[in-house]
Amino acid sequence: MSVKEDIKTDMVGKALGLLVLLGNEPKGASAADLARSAGLPFSTTYRLLGSLTRDGFVDYEPDGRRYHLGLRVFQLGQRVSNHHGFAATALPVLQRVTERTEEATILSVRDGNHHLTVNKVDGPKTFRVTSDPGHLGALHTTSVGKAIVAFENDAERERLLEELPLEALTERSITDRAAFRAEIEQVRRQGYAVMDEENEIGMRAVAVPVLNSQGHAFASVATAVPVFRLTMDELIAHVPTLQEAAAELAARLPQR
Q1: In what order do the strands lie in the sheet containing 114-121?
Q2: Under a CB-based contact definition with an 8 Å cutoff, are residues 206 and 149 in contact?
Q3: How many CB atoms lie within 10 A of CB 150?
Q4: What would be one Pfam family of this protein (predicted)?
């Protein structure tokens, strides 16, 4: 590879890094903020944002001088979702779960040290769950994340148990590594994972893994509710419905 090609590849990596940073900023970010977060010179950041804006990957809001992810990113994301069956194939299954539970149903996969929400069906009641498709969340504070970690292959599960950052998102988050290991072992024994205000105050959830033919999780499906609506026991009563859905999703979705 020539020096010129090497520089071009490096710039592509920097541009993709800016898109990742913008994905974590739902209200948008200024060029200066992005430059600081990315550790790039302002001039480089500004030039890359200009190129990304021109091609539709980024939108610029002149009033607040802020950048947001553009529709081109959404289009690509939808194509990936369709390719993996997360949109059309999974949706009827999630809808049937919500019809039975009358609560939100969420489908997630693992993306590195996070879970990625790939599809969601809101419940008919007014209180709305905020984990929309495209949302990246912590593995250790969510039911979907714990279900995936617990049923990863042995080597990857052990790596996550040893290396996953255990940051506190609420006062109820698990931050002790021994406690997290014990929690994951319990999830493996019982076949489902719970979240009780560990990720967001006022919310609880229960999730089960979606297993491939080797018995390893390639996704997880959850029911999420506000704490005032269901007790934990009432929420866990939905586990058989989720397990039925997980078996159907395992048969329908391309396994990874």
Answers
A1: 136-138, 114-121, 104-111, 217-226, 203-211, 193-196
A2: no
A3: 25
A4: IclR_C
Q: Is residue 72 very low, low, confident or very high in pLDDT (cuts 50, 70, 90)? A: confident
CA angle at 256 for the pair 208 and 198, rounded to the nearest 5°: 35
Q: Go through the chain and tell me how many residues it has.
A: 256
In tens, the pLDDT along 147-173 reads: 999 999 999 999 999 999 999 999 999
Strand partners, 211: 217
Sign, Cα dihedral of 153, 157, 159, 160? positive
H or E segment to which residue 7 belongs: helix 3-23
Burial 176-202 (b: 16+ CB within 10 A, else e): eeeebeebbeebeeeebbbbebbbbee
